[in-house]
Write a structure and sequence with these properties.
The protein has about 250 residues and is of the alpha+beta class. The protein has five helices and twelve strands. It has helices at about 1-25, 25-35, 40-50, 115-120, 140-145, and strands at about 55-60, 70-80, 85-90, 100, 110, 135, 165-175, 180-195, 200-205, 215-220, 225-230, 235-240. Strands 1, 2, 3, 4, 5, 6, 7, 8, 9, 10, 11 and 12 form a twelve-stranded antiparallel beta sheet that branches.
């Protein structure tokens, strides 16, 4: 009876310990699960370790290809214990081979940027969202179907909080039907309000040489519309205080 009583009394403490262990081992997964308000961290730890839990996250430096430098791209991720690696299945209009990301490179992963979650995840914390963590669902239909309720396909609205001279992240996607937005890091060099909740921004991507056609871009943003991009593809919204450079 004493052991049972102690077990009951220790449950809240034990769950807190499991939560801390989980956050230490899989920080990006933890951010995703914690946002959804999931609580049984011992169960979540076991499911993640066994590869039965999948989250939609964003991956910096996709496949370490030059074309994805200074960008974060959405993918469905699972942990593969036998290889001490994450398996990233990129959301794409075309089939892309999975990338294995060593556990030591977990800094390349993040959950949806905190300042954008209220909009892109479609509500408040602890709400169930399409595209969030799935247990026993490695082939999630939400990821395969680019419905606008799935956050990598939504346009971030608004023009507030942006300061000229600071880093920002621009939503950009290819022209292929079904492609999601990625985040592309640059510096905000100019910002002009043009009315009706819209603004015009000039962004420079300084990891390209100044002579490159990819160096400077002018975009109109602020509403829910995608707009054609002079680089090709489409642009969406702009996120203040871009974090990609910190990785």
């Amino acid at each position: 009876m004493s052991a049972r009583f102690v077990n009951i009394q220790m449950r809240p403490v034990a769950n807190s310990i499991w939560k801390d262990l989980y956050a230490h081992k899989w920080p990006a997964f933890h951010d995703c699960l914690n946002y959804q308000g999931l609580q049984d961290w011992c169960h979540l730890y076991r499911e993640t370790l066994n590869g039965r839990l999948e989250c939609t996250l964003e991956v910096f430096d996709r496949e370490k290809k030059l074309g994805f430098a200074m960008a974060a791209m959405p993918a469905r991720l699972q942990y593969e214990a036998r290889s001490y690696a994450y398996v990233a299945r990129y959301l794409s209009a075309c089939e892309v081979p999975p990338e294995k990301i060593p556990a030591c490179e977990r800094h390349r992963l993040r959950f949806c940027p905190e300042s954008a979650r209220g909009q892109l995840l479609g509500g408040h914390p602890h709400a169930s969202q399409d595209g969030d963590a799935k247990v026993d669902a490695p082939c999630d239909k939400a990821a395969a179907d680019p419905g606008m309720n799935f956050y990598p396909y939504r346009v971030l609205q608004g023009i507030e909080g942006l300061e000229v001279g600071t880093g920002v992240e621009l939503q950009w996607r290819t022209m292929q039907e079904g492609s999601p937005f990625g985040w592309w890091y640059g510096q905000l060099d100019a910002l002009t309000r043009v009315g009706d909740g819209l603004a015009r921004a000039t962004i420079t991507f300084r990891h390209f040489p100044a002579s490159s056609r990819w160096y400077r871009l002018e975009v109109v943003f602020g509403d829910s519309k995608m707009r054609e991009c002079s680089f090709g593809g489409y642009t969406g919204g702009i996120l203040e205080e871009g974090k990609i450079a910190e990785t």
